[in-house]
Amino acid sequence: MGRIKKALSNRWGAYTIAAVAGVVAYMILNNLPAVSAWLSSAMSVISPIIIGAIIAYLIDLLVVFFDTKAFKKIQQARFRYALSVVVSITVVLLALGLFFWLVLPEMISSITHFMNNTQNYASDIEDKLKDLDKFAENYGIHLNTKNWTANLKEQAEVMISDVSHNLNMAMDILRGVWNVALNIFIGLILSVYFIAGKNRLFRGIDKLRRAMLTDEQYKKHTDFLKRSNAIFSKYISFTILEAIGVGIANAIFMLIAGLPNVVLISVLVGFTNILPTFGPIVGCVMGSFVLVLEDPMYAVAFIIFTCILQTIDGYVVKPHLFGDSLGIPAVISLISIIIGGKLFGPIGILISIPFTAVMAILYHESLLPYLEKRKKMRMAEDAKQRRKAVAADGPSDIPDIPSEAATVSDPSEDTVSPAKAPAEAAPAKKKTKPSSRKPRK
């Protein structure tokens, strides 16, 4: 680090680094397809490791809860931690088992029922559009809904024929689903190893940080890691709990109101509620679309309840859970959600907001103070250079004295030669008289 700072302080070092960076950027932009292909292949290799680390972090939230809250009375630390790991993994496996046993069959049944009634739904929509066309003609408005339905039918037939005849597309879809499932399975296995060896792994990382950083840097780095972990753990755990609560509340309302497709729509609403900003809107649109095919009044009741539920969730539940700990602008949140979803899918969407919050901490507490410090250093250096320039140019501002004026002097004063001046200015030596005493014999 010292050598890099020393090289950057010199002008030739900064120019060299800038030139190398420009050449590298030009090479990357010139070979962008090859670079993107290399990045995609690298991501496909390390994606199971990333998924395993993310799953391990999610399970570790339960491990920390059991270790610090549920089993805190157990004195032996190793036994307490091992028990917390076993119980946490068991809870996750039971939750997945209940989902596949209770929720997934209901979802498949709802989807099958929806697909079997698509023809009826299409005819119902066509009849309703005809009624809308007749109603509009009474007021002199021509909607031509027949053309709409004809175009929709043609597009649907084209899509169905393309999907049925294009086996390569179907194979690509199956291959993609298989790769995702395989990566998740490998990630689950890796997550168990990550959780089991977490303490040993953290001790190794801590030794490396102590060896690389000074005591002050180590303290700041540790404080930053603790704050980041608090943001991630709080946001992820509260978001998952909130989504489960919203899904359960939606299911209770639909059961009371007698609405169909309760499990399918409630799972959709709960899952989309994890997505910040626009997730509840997507869940409302998808649920109302499923219900409007059954009965438009079902969709109206569902939309009204969703608006009430999301209002309570947005103005009562979320401020109580999260407070003002994030403070990220809506535009930055949306951009981070899009990037996280593109890179890591649903898990990337889940961690995009806390990751952006951590980057905001780095921006406000590290980057801005560093830039301000550099600005003050540049200003001090510029001021020093200006003072040097003024000191160097100062004597030239005084007019030169002509050589003839140096010989002119006041006649009342004695003229002193420059060569004799030092000799005359020196103090005269004191003369000593010879002694009158005679020396003793």
Give a structural overview.
By secondary structure, the protein is mostly helical. Among the domains are: about 1-35; about 215-380, no CATH class. The chain is about 80% helix and about 0% strand. It has helices at about 1-10, 10-30, 30-70, 75-115, 120-135, 145-165, 165-195, 200-210, 215-255, 260-270, 280-295, 295-320, 330-395, 420-425. It is extended. The model is unreliable at about 395-430 (pLDDT under 50).
Q: Quick summary of this structure?
A:
The chain is mainly alpha-helical and 441 residues long. It has 14 helices and no strands.
Descriptors:
441 residues
Calculate Rg over CA atoms.
40 Å
Globular, elongated, flat, extended or rod-shaped: what is the shape?
A: extended
The rounded distance between the terminal residues' Cα atoms is 87 Å
| Largest β sheet strand count, sense and barrel closure | none
